[in-house]
Design a protein that fits this description.
By secondary structure, the chain is α/β, with parallel strands linked by helices. It is built from 13 helices and 11 strands. A hairpin with a 7-residue loop joins strand 10 and strand 11. Bound molecules: flavin mononucleotide.
């Protein structure tokens, strides 16, 4: 049924559908279910130290014998800037007082584990079939080691320029991440990602322009929530689709109850791109902190520093059932998400796509 088999052959999968890596949300159970349904299951290791990443990959290998994708962030971390830290703490202090937290905001940071030598050794030992990156690629030396281990390498592009850069660096496929996508913008060539938020390109415009500019297979990502979106991705020239938000309501996902509640009530126009949670633009459901301080704040320290000072606010508020300080990651297609186990969702997505493609071929109205 698939009009393009390049990804199927490249990754050794049956359905060219990729579960988006979602660090902290995508469990091994979720990834295994997608793999066993014929897609490419992913696990996000951005917040895992090498030992934990190795354990997680081994656990996933025990759950499925199919190809897997392991995802890392490239080193995009900012240098601490005392003035901005202070400005940020001044912005957050009133919230600390309002929530009855006794001490001042502490300078701390999200425990991001950028891809380096130790993590590369984990990849060399575990040899996932696919390794994907966000925020560009690691150094050519690390990339050569991953390729020598036999892994396929993919990464996300948010512009045609980034896609061409990735192809020149010899990736095997490129994820075209449209601005509808949930989570962080993968932007890596802009000097300041916060300054290019207004010019982010939607999936419908981005995919065909990247397809025209590169010769490797292109994977569409961003705002795809059902078979119609997948069929559209193929019509635009993509060889597959990467889907994140639509899986957040699966019982296998590690999405919190507060986050699930917010997703179930989401409309298409309640998400925004904000930097207030991590210092980099990311799409979330707008909540108290975003509406008060953002969506883009010049006071927010660089990636991923803001997260540290917010974590205490978040934990305290969440205990009171309040998600105003929680990063409620979500793409614009959240209302299309159907709450069902991942295997059933994969079945639904593939059969909807087959129906849609068949209708298009026979030119019948829906
Ligand atoms: C909750 C969440 C977490 C994400 N975490 C990651 C991540 O760790 N690594 C990554 O490469 N992409 C991450 N993404 C972005 C996805 O790779 C992808 O671009 C996006 O989910 C596609 O758009 P959609 O959410 O509309 O399907 C995340 C997305 C979401 C929704």
């Amino acid at each position: 049924m698939w009009p393009d088999r390049r990804l199927i052959d490249l990754f050794g999968i049956e359905q060219p559908l990729i579960l988006a890596p979602m660090a902290g949300f995508g469990t091994v159970e979720l990834a295994a279910a997608v793999c066993d349904a014929g897609g490419l299951g992913s696990i996000g290791c951005a917040t895992a130290q090498p030992q934990l990443a190795a354990r997680t990959i081994k656990l996933l290998r025990q759950l499925t014998s199919r190809p897997i994708n392991v995802n890392f962030f490239c080193d995009a971390t900012a240098k601490p800037d005392a003035d901005r830290e202070q400005a940020w703490h001044n912005r957050l202090s009133p919230y600390y007082r309002r929530l009855g937290i006794a001490h001042e905001p502490l300078p701390s940071r999200l425990d991001i584990a950028p891809f380096g030598d130790a993590m590369c050794k984990v990849v060399e030992e575990t040899r996932p079939e696919v390794v994907s990156f966000h925020f560009g690629l690691p150094t050519p030396q690390l990339l050569a080691r991953i390729k020598a281990a036999g892994c396929r390498v993919i990464s996300s592009a948010t512009t045609v320029e980034e896609a061409v850069w990735l192809e020149t660096a010899r990736v095997d496929a490129i994820i075209a991440q449209g601005s509808e996508a949930g989570g962080h913008r993968a932007t890596f060539l802009a000097a300041n990602p916060n300054q290019v938020v207004a010019s982010q390109v939607g999936t419908f415009a981005l995919v065909p322009q990247i397809v025209d500019a590169v010769s490797v297979p292109v994977i569409a990502a961003g705002g795809i929530g059902d078979g119609r979106g997948i069929a559209a991705a193929f019509a635009l020239g993509a060889a597959g689709a990467q889907i994140g938000t639509a899986f957040l309501l699966c019982p296998e996902a590690a999405t919190s109850l507060l986050h699930r509640h917010a997703l179930r009530r989401a409309y298409e126009n309640v998400t925004v791109l904000t930097n207030v949670f991590t210092g980099r633009p990311a799409r979330v459901l707008a909540n108290g902190l975003v509406l008060d301080l953002g969506p883009i704040s010049d006071d927010a320290p660089g990636f991923p520093l803001p997260m540290g000072a917010i974590s205490l606010l978040r934990a305290t508020a969440e205990q009171q059932g309040n998600s105003d300080f929680t990063p409620l990651w979500s793409g614009q297609a959240a209302p299309l998400a159907t709450e069902m186990p991942a295997t059933a969702l994969m079945r639904k997505l593939t059969s909807e796509t087959a129906d849609c493609l068949a209708r298009l071929r026979s030119r019948q109205p829906a």
